[in-house]
Fold this sequence. Notes:
Distance between the termini: 21 Å
CATH topology: Rossmann fold
Bound molecules: inosinic acid
Low-confidence stretches: none
Number of strands: 9
Strand order of the largest sheet: 4-3-2-5-6-7
Radius of gyration: 17 Å
Strand content: 25-35%
Mean pLDDT: 93
Number of helices: 4
CATH architecture: 3-Layer(aba) Sandwich
Shape: globular
Helix content: 10-25%
Amino acid sequence: MSELASIPPTFRDDVESILIPEAELDARLAELAAEVDRDYAGKELLLVGVLKGAIFVMADLARYLTVPSAMDFMAVSSYGSSTSSSGVVRILKDLDTEIEGRDVLIVEDIVDSGLTLDYLTKNLRSRQPASVEILSLLTKPSRREVDLPVKYIGFEVPDVFVVGYGLDYAERYRSLRDIVTLAPSVYGG
Ligand code: IMP
């Protein structure tokens, strides 16, 4: 089981395979930060992280950025312990700050159906920011239900449920350093 050496032993039986190792996530975030730096040169960014999945993307991206950036967070209703979208989006925690006239970059872990971010971008646009763009570490294009422009994408993943690096299944596995797939036994298979 040496290929799962980076997974803590307590989680190893639950993990099927490592889809994107920590080093690749890190390298890609550095590249994305360089793109963002270039696009927002001379400006000041407001990074809006979507809780809880985006916490590590936010932490790592923000530390690679050299343009000045502030951070705020929103929490929206998610899937709970199910693995497919309900399409219902509810704001559980709103921004602490006003965004009128500001350049907003939404920082997300994964875009699946796109329903969550479609709702969120429309909601934020109604507050008259100077701009709103989306950065997502992962995207599952085959699952998209709405046309959602995601300006910065880390990796395209196939239609499989992934966890780690902030992504959870029933609130577990967020702390894993890699993006992994879970063994069928975890889902009761
Ligand atoms: P969407 O509204 O369908 O795009 O869903 C986006 C949200 O669903 C993400 O922010 C995640 O919380 C969750 N999600 C979608 N796919 C996965 C996955 O493969 N693993 C963990 N969470 C996921």
